[in-house]
Amino acid sequence: MRIGVIGTGTIGSMLAQAFAVNPQHEIWVVNRTREKADAIARSAPNIRVACGLADLTDRSQLVFLCTKAHDGRRLMHELGPLLRPDQMLAVTISSLPIAWIEQRVACPAAKVIPSVVQLARSGVILVCHGTRATDADRARLESALSEIATPHAVEEDQIRVASDLTSCGPAFLAALLRHWAEAAEQTGAMTQEEAERLLSGTLAGMTQLLQSGMTFSDIIHRVCVPGGVTEAGLVSIRQEAPAVFTRLHQTTQLFSQGSVLVVRLPG
Question: Which PANTHER family would you find in this protein's record (predicted)?
């Protein structure tokens, strides 16, 4: 497949490199800063730099728009007339309404929300199909995405919460585990580095259990002995965790609406 990627920042470069693992794919990239596009092209022989939007769309069957929101809105006015009905547009900007996108293109369109775990060609990638997409269009896009992840179709009003779980999820989980490692160090029993190694190994093993078909509840029941130390620890989690995750979803929702100013965290 001939795939075009507009924007080679974190998301665009990750998608280009993930698809480029398949040598049969021809990946075309374009970026406002040519040096960044050139750097991505050097990472795989089947990634090439297009001369501009017109060149990229002319060469591509599937086009990903992976810029920041304000750049994406501007570029859509230029990109829309270049796309043919037989092509497909996938926009990774969650804040752009799918109806707004569809008004500006003649081809089927979708919103696609990737995750950093696609670097490992794994995890879940969210797909919100446009109203004009036929069953064949949906199948074609999801077939392409299935090479690098498990596509999961969502409605537009599900994207924020689903993104918290999948796209933002790796960072949220990593932060929780890092705080756990810091708390382990504070007991005086080990360093944070050792605690992180133990947690990483446990998480890797737990992932294999989940992939074998076990659920979160299954794992809890296998570990938790009535009256034992695990049950005692779970009591504290059940008392504190629900409020943490409720606030998390509320904060990301407010931020997506422009109502929250986030102060950058150190480290």
Answer: COME OPERON PROTEIN 4 (PTHR11645:SF51), PYRROLINE-5-CARBOXYLATE REDUCTASE (PTHR11645)
Task: Check whether 256 has a pLDDT greater than 90.
Answer: no
Are β-strands 62-65 and 2-6 bridged in parallel, bridged antiparallel, or unpaired?
parallel
Class of domain 2-154: alpha beta
Q: What are phi and psi of 28, to 5 degrees?
A: -115, 130
Does domain 169-256 fall under CATH 1.10.3730.10? My reply is: yes
* Residue whose tokens read 């259990």: 209
Could you give the CA distance from residue 28 to residue 163 in angstroms, rounded to a whole number?
Answer: 26
- Give the whole-angstrom CA distance, residue 102 versus residue 111: 10
pLDDT confidence tier of residue 258, bands split at 50, 70 and 90 = confident
Intrachain domains 2-154 and 169-256 with the same fold: no
Separation of alpha carbons 77 and 238, rounded Å: 49
What is the domain partition of the chain in residue ranges? Answer: 2-154, 169-256
Look up residue 78 and give its amino acid. E
User: How much is the pTM?
Assistant: 0.91
